[in-house]
Design brief:
InterPro entries: TSNAXIP1_N. By secondary structure, the chain is mostly helical. The protein has 21 helices and six strands. α13 packs across α14, α18 packs across α19 and α20 crosses α21. The longest helix has about 120 residues. It starts with 6 loop residues before the first helix and ends in a 15-residue tail after the last helix.
Length: about 700
């Protein structure tokens, strides 16, 4: 038998390279079985058609006929050179064998029938070549074992590669997930490092300023010490000169006294026997000496009359030092007393204001008061009996007890309702309540309502594009309960949060939902609580959840630098500190931020909220006093801008523009610059009400400290 040219096995070897497409094993098995059945039939047909007399038609291996795939390269450079030389030697009119032409036509036909647009196209493309190779294996009996082993080796390699690809697919997905996780961690670490770097830079600037201040003080003290040393040297020289002069004077006086005594001793033996002329001359000379001595004595008195003895000088100097120390001590005491006096004056003024306020409240209560009700009568009415009523009434005044009683009564009535009447489609009706007909009362518990509102807040904070809060609320209910029950849940939730005003979560959600408070108030309060908890955690180096009272006070003062000492004291008392407690007492700071099942915060967080509202009221009251207008008066944007800068000089431009945009209901980008506010006027009462709805707070002390 004539075997085909060497190009056929090489071409088959070229096309049997492993494919990178992953195909389902069941699909391949079914395809192979079908193709094998077709192959057996086609082998019989082709062997009958193209085998004549038990052998194939010969065809020279150098014939330059068309190859099966024109874009395939030969398997080796030697073959390409031999084929080229054979093409030059043989004539071009040599025809192909019929068997080769039939195989090429069959291959083209099968390739055209394949759907190459699917994922398994490359794997299916190999099937026609497998069939052609099977034809060769069956027809070339002599080379059948070798060709079959070659085919099996390629099939085993293909299966092995497919298994490796299938095994690597999950690793690729896991690699992508790990890469994303690592990128997120890297970004978080970089953000934290940037924050720490900024804080360290601020601390560095503060320390540099402190160093400059200390250097200036050092230079000033050095100059003062130099001046004092110079004065001391001058005084020392002066007193040294005075001492020497005094010693000289004393020596001269002693010498004169000795001379006089010598003269008296010399004259005494023969004083009555001397010559009168000699005595007269001696008397004259003595008188001259006396006159000269008297003049010297007067000169010495004139020159050294103000000189004091060194002992007296040292005593006076010691007395002067003692008096100076007493004076310094008295000055320090005076400064302390003056500061205490100023504090007492401020306390006195605040006490006077409180007294006037209490007096006016007393007069108002006396005018409108009724006999104090006996609240113990409610024990038999409220569900839970005496114990539950005492728990509800603990620490509440009469007004708050009325609210509690109304909530209990309203809760019972709300439970009895099975349906709510629709409010219609009026413009004054909130969008999430616009409905005609009756809606079902879902009757959830307070715990269920609180959890639902918390989920709504989480989804709201996670939103990228903010829509109006009422629309978001209704869309949230549609996503949670479906379009059919969304309206029923909207009415149910609305009635519950309108009733339970004493619940923090419900009252805050109701205020934001009805437009009585801005969302930023809630979000800023949550951020403040989270920041405070983070600061406490940073101080807790052992991560035990415990802090001393001194550490708690330090954290509060660093987190709220503008709060007064009494405000810090109130927060510490709300956290569990008492005046008789020591600073070493430990406090579980994590318990300060816990909530009960109905969303009620601990007294510490409640006190934070109360202080925030009080500080906002004081801030707006200062703004009103700075403007000097009545609530019914009109005020311009420029006046409010100026008043805000006067009461809070630390306001930056961005925060100031946000306050003005809230007061005048303008977009932040459209707030006019300073000097361009003409024509923008609003009632003062309206502006204060809008500011009260927003998150406004003091950014710094009212009086700027002078730069050192």
């Amino acid at each position: 038998l004539c075997h085909p040219p060497l190009s056929s096995p090489s071409l088959c070897r070229t096309h049997l390279r492993p494919s990178r497409v992953t195909i389902d094993d069941s699909f391949l098995t079914e395809t192979k079985n079908t193709q094998k059945r077709k192959l057996s039939q086609k082998q019989k047909t082709l062997s009958c058609q193209f085998s004549t007399g038990g052998h194939l038609s010969p065809w020279p291996t150098y014939t330059s006929g068309q190859t099966i795939l024109h874009n395939r390269k030969p398997c080796s450079d030697d073959y390409r050179k031999r084929a080229g030389s054979w093409q030059q030697q043989q004539p071009l009119n040599t025809t192909k064998p019929r068997y080769l032409e039939q195989l090429e036509n069959y291959l083209r036909k099968e390739l055209l029938l394949l759907d190459l647009g699917t994922d398994s196209a490359q794997e299916l493309r190999l099937q026609p070549y497998r069939e052609i190779f099977e034809f060769f294996i069956e027809d070339f009996k002599t080379y059948k074992p070798l060709l079959s082993s070659i085919k099996n080796a390629y099939e085993v390699m293909l299966a092995h590669q497919r298994e490796r690809i299938r095994a690597l697919e999950p690793l690729k997905a896991k690699l992508v997930t790990v890469n994303e996780d690592c990128n997120e961690r890297i970004l978080a670490m970089r953000a934290e490092e940037r924050y720490e770097i900024s804080m360290l830079k601020k601390e560095k600037m503060n320390l540099l300023k402190l160093i400059d201040k200390k250097n200036e003080e050092k230079i000033s003290l050095q100059s003062e010490v130099t001046k004092l040393r110079k004065n001391l040297a001058e005084e020392y020289l002066h007193y040294l000169t005075e001492r020497d002069a005094r010693k000289i004077l004393i020596a001269d006086l002693n010498e004169l006294r000795y001379q006089r005594e010598d003269m008296s001793l010399a004259q005494s033996p023969g004083i009555w026997g001397e010559d009168p002329v000699k005595l007269t001359l001696a008397l004259k000379m003595t008188r001259q000496d006396l006159t000269r001595t008297q003049m010297e004595l007067n000169t010495m008195k004139a020159n050294f009359g103000d000189v004091v003895p060194r002992r007296d000088f040292e005593m006076q100097e010691k007395t002067n030092r003692d008096l100076q120390e007493q004076l310094d001590s008295l000055r320090d005491d005076y400064e302390e007393v003056r500061k205490e006096h100023e504090i007492l004056l401020q306390l006195h003024m605040s006490t006077l204001k409180e007294r006037d306020q209490f007096y006016s409240e007393l007069q108002e209560s006396q005018r409108t008061s009724t006999p104090r009700p006996d609240w113990t009568k409610c024990e038999d009415v409220v569900a839970g009996g005496r114990d539950r009523w005492q728990m509800l009434a603990e620490g509440k005044n009469s007004d708050q007890l009325v609210d509690v009683l109304l909530e209990e009564i309203g809760e019972g009535l709300l439970r009895e309702k099975d349906f709510f009447p629709g409010l219609g489609y009026g413009e004054d009706i909130p969008p999430f309540l616009r409905f005609d007909g009756i809606v079902e009362n879902k009757k959830p518990t307070k715990k269920d309502v609180v959890n639902l509102l918390k989920d709504a807040w989480k989804e709201r904070l996670a939103e990228e594009q903010k829509e109006k809060f009422p629309n978001f609320f209704f869309n949230f209910l549609e996503r949670r309960f479906g379009p059919g029950d969304a309206m029923a849940w909207a009415y149910t939730i609305f009635e519950n949060i309108k009733l339970f005003r004493s619940n923090e979560v419900m009252s805050q959600f109701y205020a934001v939902l009805m437009g009585k408070r801005s969302e930023s108030v809630y979000t800023k309060q949550k951020e403040t609580i989270a920041q405070l908890l983070k600061e406490m955690t940073n101080v807790d180096s052992q991560n035990e959840g415990l802090l001393t009272m001194e550490q708690l006070s330090t954290v509060l003062k660093s987190t709220f630098p503008l709060k007064k000492e009494e405000k810090i004291q109130e927060l510490m008392e709300a956290g569990g500190w008492h005046p008789n407690s020591s600073n070493a007492d430990l406090l579980n700071y994590r318990s300060l931020f816990m909530e009960d099942e109905e969303g009620q915060s601990m007294p510490f967080v409640q006190k934070l909220w109360e202080q925030y509202m009080d500080e906002k009221d004081e801030y707006l009251q200062e703004l009103k006093q700075e403007l000097g207008l009545e609530l019914r008066d009109e005020v311009t944007l420029s006046k409010i801008r100026e008043a805000l800068m006067n009461i809070d000089p630390s306001l930056d431009k961005q925060t100031l523009n946000s306050y003005l945009s809230q007061a005048f209901q303008l977009p932040v980008t459209e707030v006019p610059e300073e000097g361009e506010e003409e024509g923008i006027v609003i009632w003062l009462q309206t502006a204060l009400e809008r500011l009260h709805m927003a998150d406004i707070r003091r950014m710094g002390p009212r009086e700027q400290e002078p730069a050192s």
